[in-house]
Amino acid sequence: MTDSDGLTSIPRPTATRPLLGMTVLVVEDSRYACDAMRLLCLRSGARIRRADCLQSARRHLHVYRPTVAVIDLGLPDGSGADLIADLADTMPRISVILGTSGDSFAEDVALAAGADGFLAKPVDSVMAFQTMIISKLPPERQPRGVRMVSDDPVHPDPLAYRDDMAHAADVLGGDSDARTLDYVTSFLRGVAFSAGDHALVTAAEGLAGARVEGRPTKPDIAHIARLVQDRLAQRVAI
């Protein structure tokens, strides 16, 4: 099924909703980041579908073909770059494939895998979101005319951030093998950066540094676990 989802006619874009008639598949494990995408799509006129892991994304893609796929590179069951590479080679091709991450090296990884572009986190600008997607669409699908857009940043629901903390607490409470530590470190660093939670960003970077340098990680893990529990208890305002 295509991104029309079986509709007999696709709504035409307007000056205020230039992505009207398009479907955006967001492959993202952070509820906070996904809520930002939801607001961006809402303001742009696009419908959103969400998958929180590679397996879920592949199930979605067996059912329908979106106009746009926005794929986070750090997912709980593997790298989003693998999905980007698969989609880039699949025909008929999704019109726009974008990578997203808060890591500085991720843009090169996404583009090398076959992404059309990259959205650096935090993604909170309606204008930047629309411009990236429209600029990568085939010429015949690009909306014509002037766009009218307010570029006030979107503000995701703080409860979505708390959901991310609950997810991190669950992961930290399980087996802390190397892959799990890499995942939760990247996850927390990304979502905390998007939310402006500088203390948690610093803690996540400290754990990442300890792993790279071969230092003991238990003190860093314990510190991060305390910060996560503080946010779950709402003792820290984000």
Automatic annotation (TrEMBL):
Domain Response regulatory: 23-136
Keyword Phosphoprotein: yes
Keyword list, A-Z: Phosphoprotein
UniProt-recorded name of the protein: Response regulator receiver domain-containing protein
Tree of life domain: Bacteria
Modification 4-aspartylphosphate occurs at: D72
Coiled-coil region list: none
SMART domains assigned: REC
GO biological process: phosphorelay signal transduction system
Organism per entry: Salipiger aestuarii
Signal peptide (UniProt feature, chain positions): none
Phosphoprotein listed as a keyword: yes
